Amino acid sequence: VSATHFPNADRVASNDSNLANNWEYADFIKRLIDDVSSFSSYDAGEVFERLLLLPECTSYRDYLLHAQSNQKARYRESQFQHADWKQALNTLTNQTPTNVMDLYALLLDHLRDIATRITYENTDIYKQFWNEDG
Length: 134
Known about the structure:
Layout: H1 17-37, H2 42-53, H3 61-79, H4 85-92, H5 100-120
Helix pairs in contact: 1-3, 2-3
């Protein structure tokens, strides 16, 4: 990994050519990171997971996290599929969820209903979880 030899460096207003070179190398590594974040594949996301675990990349951690976030958004966008009319009708009539997000919304809705029942109904719903016979 090039990050071992060229840690992240900010551009410095100095005449020192070593500092300028370090900044140029760091900028090159950042461009490589940006290139990986432009891919919308699952494997690109795995690359960021591995890079973030490497101790050599700690100076680039914030930059890697930002690039990983951008890559995850690209991956989600590439995996999104619009529902056709049949799938939309199933979702609207509380039948089969069309995708994972519909299933997630359905699950949250049911959990909210259960929480409301437990909180506000007159029945003591907690008794079903306890052995009252001794």
